[in-house]
Amino acid sequence: MATVLVHFAAAAATDRGRKRPSNEDAFGFSVEHGVYVVCDGMGGAAAGEIASSLAVDEVLQRLESRAASQAPLAQAAEQAVNAANAAIYSRAERNYQLNGMGTTLVGLLVEERRVLVFNVGDSRCYRLRKNRMEQITLDHSLVEEQVRMGRMTRAEALRSPMRNVITRALGTQCCVTPDLFELEADPGDLFLLCSDGLTRELADPLIESMLMLELPLDDLCSRLVQAAKKAGGHDNITCVLVRAEG
User: Fold this and answer.
1) What DSSP state is assigned to residue 97?
2) What fold is seen in the domain 7-245?
3) What is the DSSP letter of 74?
């Protein structure tokens, strides 16, 4: 049987939204090296921006040089996340004004048709395949964990005053464990990496309908961000789209 070859194309957009004075989200990607990352920082003053930028830079640097070590995808991603966590944690220890800073992270690492999704926190990865969107990642948030355990309904989670509480983040503790999801890409698959500034404003069915539009990736990113701003824009909004093409 002939092997189906795929290559990837990507685009991104970010916006501080309508309520926040600055943008604590960060993103980065390298199509050449098959690495895509979105981070959503948190902390006082500029600490969130520092944490998210540190995480993106560290993960990109580590995974762009992965070819030299030939490490398996899962091992390489976990090592990169650990390095990013250590960089943020040690930076905060050296500067008391940055104490408590941290960031979420969601990333995609591809090698031919193999795709590894990894995440810490509540930034998400979705995959649209044949006009059906599914969430790949699981949120590390208090309300989502309560929903998964059956202790809270989805409607209660949306109304909960605790819905901003995340249970896992980069930089807030000396060690962190990312979730890892191994997939295989088919031509036409569209992956969305995004901060919660998008998913808090737009319901999944609306995101799905927008991703099905036959538009360039840049235009899709812009439309998603603008729709989230129009819906309220209460937080920073970032999305990266990655399409597998035959």
Assistant:
1) G
2) Phosphatase 2c; domain 1 (3.60.40)
3) H
Three-state DSSP at 204 gives helix
Q: CA-CA distance, 81 to 91, in Å (whole number)?
A: 15
Mean pLDDT score, 103-123:
97
**Is residue 2's pLDDT more than 60?**
no
Asked if 33 and 107 count as a contact pair (C-beta separation under 8 A), the reply is no
89 CB burial (10 A radius; 0-12, 13-18, 19+): buried
What is the C-alpha radius of gyration for the chain, rounded to an integer number of angstroms?
17
Give the C-alpha separation, 96 to 146, whole Å: 33
9, 210 contact by CB (below 8 A): no
The answer to whether the CB of 9 falls within 8 A of the CB of 243 is: yes
Looking at residue 50, what is its pLDDT? 95
Average pLDDT for 80-86: 97
